[in-house]
Amino acid sequence: MPPERREPREAALRHCLQIGVDAIKAGRSPLDVVELVVRELEDNPHFNAGKGSVLTSNGTVEMEACIMDGNTKKCGAVSGISTVKNAISVAKLVMEKTPHIYLGFDGAEAFAREQAFSDGMETVDSSHFITPENIERLKQAKAANRVQIDYTQPIPKAEEETSLPNGDSQIGTVGCVVVDGYGNLAAATSTGGLVNKMVGRIGDTPIIGAGTYANSLCAVSATGKGEAIIRATVARDVAALMEYKGLSLKDAATYVIEECTPERTAGLIAVSATGEVTMPFNTVGMFRACATEDGDSEVAIWHDEPCD
Amino acid sequence: MGGWAIAVHGGAGVDPNLPNERQEEAKQLLTRCLNLGISALRSSLSAIDVVELVVRELESDPLFNSGRGSALTEKGTVEMEASIMDGPGRRCGAVSGVTTVRNPISLARLVMDKSPHSYLAFSGAEEFAKQHGVEMVDNDFFITEDNIGMLKLAKEANSILDSNIRAGILRCSGGEADPNERPPNQRYAPETVGCVVVDSQGRCAAATSTGGLMNKMVGRIGDSPLIGAGTYACDLCGVSCTGEGEAIIRGTLARDVAALMEYKELSLQEAVDYVIKRLDDGKAGLIAVSSKGEVAYGFNSVGMFRGCATEDGFMEVGIWE
Questions:
Q1: What are the strands, taking DSSP E only, across chain B?
Q2: CATH fold group of domain A3-127+170-297
Q3: Contacts of residue A108 in chain B, CB cutoff 8 Å?
């Protein structure tokens, strides 16, 4: 991957990681920290969430997000957001201000508008989210007549070298998982979905247990091919393996990625109540970053880079 | 051991004062659906076909909360959702926000079989349905007099509920009412229908369909279309849940039954009991079958409309404990 495509993303991850670390040190709750970090990732146009979201087959943006609190297992999710800057904040408000867990499409947008004066409910024109790179990606996907799982299909104008193998992601869903010094856990995930997806298509991100999950043992956020992550209930299974089979966080996460999802379809980040971190993936790369209290921190993309 | 098995449900959380007449009607419908499924199994239809067939029947009857007879949104409209899962291969399909498709479960099946995705919602789902020539009707078709009345009661009770909360009579966290204080017609508003089947080849399947919560916000999605929450099927079992959506979602109920069998090696009944026991503050129920031909159910709510049958001739329909 050429530096001009890699560096902005690595820099963004470093920046978001620092925001998260600072917030944890300032005593913010894990729930607040994951929201804060994901908002930052949504605002960054280099990732497939918020601004920079991939486009539906109609050339529009339909974003979805989900947040879960490990202690209470309270959760919030939204799908079909098209004019609110930060879908993750809408998800959090659904969790906090409605008797429901999940709102979609017109109903979600209407709710966000009602909450307009709450923090973080800024609405914008949907063109705000659309970037030239994504218009190009959609064009390519249509030309190839396929739905792209991962979409760093090279854009001829932006780079000379070829490609990464089809279907391999380098800018996927965004997510954040946090454990504080007391073992409190939270997870948050946000995405624009799949390039050229059908209007109304919902992926794994807003489905509790698929793309997002947190309980008193661990917090998990997954990325990759939504359909595969849903079928394998990826996020829940990491926790279930720890709970029902006594596996460690690392073993549970590795098992789910290596045994439960097909090659090139999934990756995840996870933290445990005891402060461990793991970030396995079966795709060629996964943009990721982690930091722990003892001062270790890493930003990485490929497999041979140590990060857990 | 082995052989086919089938279970159906019409919702958990039944009004203990439900008139006998309604109880009888419910039992008759459950019996009819079981028999439909049993004939299909005897004709060697596969599990995935049987669950769809049976849930279509439940959707068509206005008695339970799905298809015709669905609960109404706060705006008095119907928004239905459904999901279906095929154990072998764990293929799945789901829809939400369906307003004009006569049988949401069949649309969910179509998403599974004929689209590159697993879950379609709202106008996207309706568009997909149109493209495939699925039977469409007006939204009015699904609305019943009973439910118009129920919506009115729910709104009246909620406004009482809301003013009690505001007056500090009831505690409330973040705008959410204490679930124990839900007005009676919402406490006992069964929310879903479902069917689980294992066929004579040991293949499991599950299907769930609903109109959702009475007086729900427009756009609200519950547990029924969420794979792992309201519906799940794999090589080992098929599960369909009903009850308080929140409890089912955070408990990933349907997946947990299977995960307990898979990772903790519990039997079907043990897994069902474990999962129900753990529902501390939520009220829910579920039906399940295993690839070995067993059938099981459990609920911690006041009643669950259900029926089950196995190849060896066992058949039971019930509402209460």
A1: 5-12, 80-86, 91-98, 119-121, 172-173, 176-177, 193-198, 204-210, 220-221, 231-233, 237-243, 284-290, 295-299, 304-310, 315-318
A2: Glutamine Phosphoribosylpyrophosphate, subunit 1, domain 1 (3.60.20)
A3: 219
